[in-house]
Amino acid sequence: MEAASKIEKFKINVSSKQPTALVAGGAGFLGSHLCESLLSQQFNVIALDNLSVSGSKKNIERLLSSPNFSFWEEDINKPDFKLSPTIPLTHIFHLASIEEHLSSDKLSLQTLLVNSLGTKNLLDLAVERGVKFILVSSTEVFHGALSQTSVDNYFGKAADPEQVSFSEAKRFAETLTAEYFRSHDAQTTIIRVKDPYGPRMSLDVGSPLGQMIEQALNKERIELTGDGLQTYNPTFVTDIIFGIVKASVGNFNGKIFNVINPEKYTERAIAETLQKIIGGVEIVFKKKGDLQLSSYPLIINPTQEQLGWEPKVSLRQGLEETISNLKGETFAREAEIAQTKGKRDVGQPKKQFKTNSSLVRRIIIITLAVLLFWILLLPPAVLFTNIYSGARNIQNAEKSLKGDNFESAVDQAKKAENAFNGGQNSSKSIFWAPFLPALSDSLKQTGNLLFYAENISAATKNLGEGLNIIEESEEKQLSEEKLSEKLLKAGLKIDQAARNLEIATSVEIEEGKLLPTTSGLLADLKENEAELTELINALKQSLPN
C-alpha cells in the first residue's frame, strides 16, 4: 500500500467562462499532448489518470503551474467513480489505456477494465451532464477472425495475449459508445489512431516503432524481421491531437474518424530514416517469424473531407523531433492548431408545454388535480425524508465508530450513503423549481451538500470496514503472512476512505443558500470530516507500507 502522511484537499481550477474538458489518461503520451493543446485553445483542463500503466506526472509537470489546469489521480474503473456536481464540464476525452502492446497479464486485465467499466463510467457521466464524449480508439479493432473453440486464435497463430486484450477491449469500448449514442442520445465521437509517435512516447510498451527508435538511440543494431517489408502508418502526435481537437469542437455526433497518416512506410524505410538521422547504426535482418495477417484497408477519405484533416509532419521531421526530445534536448515547435469555424452544439431548446384551457368533465379535473398534487409534493417529501434518514444514520454511524462497534458503523454509514444519494435524485425531480429562482438556487446548493454528505458517509463506511478487519486480525492467532494480507486489505479500505474525503472536499457549498432545514447538517458533517481526516492520517502512519 502506498501510504501518505496526510489527506490532500482535492480542488479543481476552472473558469466558468471557458469550456472545461476532463481528459482520462491525461498523464499519458497522447493525453498530455491533448491537455497542452486544449489549454492553448482556452479550455479548463482536468487531467485524470491513475498513473498505473503508461501515465507519468513527468509528462504534465510543466502544466501544473497553469491556473486552468488540474490533475486528479483517480481510477475510472471504480464502481463508485464520481465527479463533484460543482465542477462544470463541456467535454470528456477518453484516452486511458490507449498504449498498445502492454507487457504483462496484470496490465492486460487493466486494459480490459479501462475499456469496459471505465468507458461506461465516463459515458454515464457524459449523459448525466449532457456533454460531448470523445473516445480515442485504435485500428486494432479490425484485427480478428471468429473461432468456435478458442479466443486465442482471434488474432492469428501464437497471438500475444496482451495484444488480444487491447484489440478486444477497444472493440468493446467502441460498441458501448455507439450504443450510448443510439439509446441515450449521447453526444459521442470516435477517433481511431494507428502507429502514433512523437515526444514523450514510451519506449517500454513494445511497439515496433518504439523498439526501432530505442535501438537507434542506444546505438544498437536495428533488428528487422524477415525482409523488413512489414508496413506501418507512423502518425506524428501533433497531427493526431489536431484531429482530436477539431472533432471535439465540431458537430460530429455518432461519427467515427480514422486520424491516421495515409502514407505507409516499411520497417526498412523507417530504419533507414533513423540511420540517416543518428548515424553509425547498423540494420540487420532477423529470421522471419510467424506469418502476419494481411493488412486491412484504411478508409481515410471521410476524415479528410468531413473533418478537414490531413497530416502535416513528415516522417523525417517527426523522427528528428522525437529523438531530440528523447535525448533530453529542447526542440521548439508550436503545434499547428487551425482555427475551427462553426457554431458549437448548445443542445436542444427546452420544450414548451401547452395548457388546455377548455372545460372538461369534473372527473377529469379531479383526476388531474390529484395527479398534479402528487407530482408537485412527492419529490419534496422524498427529498426531506432522505435528508432526515441520512442525517440520523450518519450520526449513528459516527457514534458506533467512536464506540469501536465497527460492524454497526458500516451498516449505518451504508444507509446514510444510500439516503443522501436518493436525496440528490429527488432534488433533481422537482421540475418546477427553475420557475422560482431562489428555490432553484437553494436546491442546487442542497444537492451539492447531499453529494458531500454521500462521500462523507462512504468514507465512514470504508474506514469502518478497514478498522473491522484490523480488529478481527488482532483477535485471531494469524501467521505473519496471513496478518500481512489482512493489514494490506485494511489499508486499501482506509485508502478508499481517504479518496472519498478528497472528493467530498472538492465540493463548494454556499451555506447561505441552503434550504433552512439543512444548515445544521452541514455543520455536523464538517465536524465528522475533521475527525475522519485525523483518524485516517493516524492509521496511514501506523500501518505498514
Automatic annotation (TrEMBL):
Report keywords, A-Z. Decarboxylase, Lyase, Membrane, NAD, Transmembrane, Transmembrane helix
Where is the chain membrane-spanning?
359-377
Question: Organism's domain of life?
Answer: Bacteria
Q: GO CC terms for this protein?
A: cytoplasm
Which cofactors are named for this entry? NAD(+)
> From the UniProt record, which GO molecular function terms apply?
NAD+ binding; UDP-glucuronate decarboxylase activity
Q: Which SUPFAM superfamilies match?
A: NAD(P)-binding Rossmann-fold domains
Coiled-coil residues are none
An example GO BP is: D-xylose metabolic process
| Ranges where the NAD-dependent epimerase/dehydratase domain occurs | 21-259
- Family annotation (PANTHER family): UDP-GLUCURONIC ACID DECARBOXYLASE 1, UDP-GLUCURONIC ACID DECARBOXYLASE-RELATED
This chain belongs to the protein called NAD-dependent epimerase/dehydratase domain-containing protein
